[in-house]
Amino acid sequence: MTALDNRPAASSAALTGTVAVLVSLVLGLAVVDPIPVLAGFGGGLCIAAGVWALRSEARERIAGGSILIIIGAGVFCGTALLATDYWSLVVALGFPLAATLVVIDASSGLVPPADATDELSAMLDESFVVLVVGVIVTIVCAVATAVRLPWVFVRVVTGFSLHPLVGFVTLQAGVLLALLLLDRATETLESWVPAPTATTDRALERLDLLGTNWWDIDTPLKAAVGLQLLVAFVPTAQMLFDRFLDSLPVLGSALQVAFSGPLHLPLAAGILALLAILIVERLRQWLLQWLGDDPGQSLARQTGSIVAAVGLLLGALALTAAGVTRRVAPTFTGGGHYGSATLLLLGVLISVAVLRGLITLLAELVGAEVLSRRVAGFATGSGLLFVMTLLGAERGLAPILVLVGSAAALLVWDAGAHASSIGQQLGRDAETTDSEFVHVTGTAAVLAGAILLVLFVRYVLIPVAVPTTSAGLSFSSVLALGLVLLAIAAFALALNAHEEGPHTSGDRSGSRGKRTADDSD
């Protein structure tokens, strides 16, 4: 027996989302340039589809939803670059955001129940961390490429030289450090081999003989090495050591060359290899903690951010390796592609942070009982659509479109609340098409009557009474008309409400059968 799917009723929810998208799109295109508006709607619908896919049990769908949300966040950020001014940006993002909130609530629910896992919030939190790591890595790559770090490393290695006394003492310290690291690395390697063979057992035993603990090293030896480190940089000691080597006819020259750097390179390589083993182990432990009890689920949620970071890094690497350069400063040209990747990742990171903040705000409002959890997206989306309609009036939106936008906002809220009520009581797939049709039709009829009434008063009665009235709508008149429409519609909707709740087709057939039986009696 499966749990009841108490999401909003499918028919009304689909109608609500369709009305929100179409009206928001028409109003947005009527106010600003179409390109940023279309881009914003593309990003918003990607986010809505991603949230729908994210709240499922199939990991493939969760991974696809994560990718869609990251793509949508990136497109939303790119919309900001297409807007010509601040108000165009507000309009180009406001209408798509309103439609997105409604579609999310209609398809999957914007705020989940308190006892359910919020996959969207978890995905945004984990993606934020992954994107931060990606930004840091791209910045490091940009700097390394700009200063040509590999060539710098080659020049440092080839030109590496020390004074023989300094080299002699640092070799001793390096050997002690390598032994200490080897002791830790041996334990790590043993943990990586759960069932060692005879060959691996012998190899690990030999490493145990080489490695040693810090406390196992004799104190006089540690004190001697420390004292040598203090003395090695004194000019007088260096001069005396040079005289000592000069006193050795053949061996002195060989030791002077060996202590000057050649022996340090293989020792440094070994130390780096041991450090790499320890660092990889730390990263492995961190990843185990990060992925939690269900690594597959966590990786599926992070797929979008991982793909974005890795894809941009590989793209920058391919362009750089191909010799395509982009100047980022008067003197540096090699790191331009990594710089572009950094900017793109920062844009996605900002969009993810803003989206996470919005979800947190709505969750707090639901927790404070300011909003109902079941209609949080419908209420927020319809309210934002109403506000954006009034702002569009100040941008030259036609009066009829202002009234249509205000009416659509009320229709979205009422139809969404009705769909949520049906889904909560009877389930998403309940056969309540007749009830939904009657309710939505009544609401639409009331709103259409309110629009006709306002238009009649504005364009027939007022010009007759005051012929000199301007034909345009000011902000005050738009706000007044919107409030009048809101009051009329709210009053009519209250009259249209019924106490019995939604009826299924089975209930109606039962009622008709009962009424027929009563008539026959």
From TrEMBL:
Protein name in UniProt: Uncharacterized protein
Determine if Ribosomal protein is one of this entry's keywords: no
Q: Which UniProt keywords apply?
A: Membrane, Transmembrane, Transmembrane helix
Q: Which Pfam families match?
A: DUF7519 (PF24363)
The transmembrane segments are 12-31, 37-55, 62-83, 89-107, 128-149, 161-182, 261-280, 306-324, 344-363, 375-391, 397-416, 437-461, 473-495
Q: Where is this region: Disordered?
A: 500-521
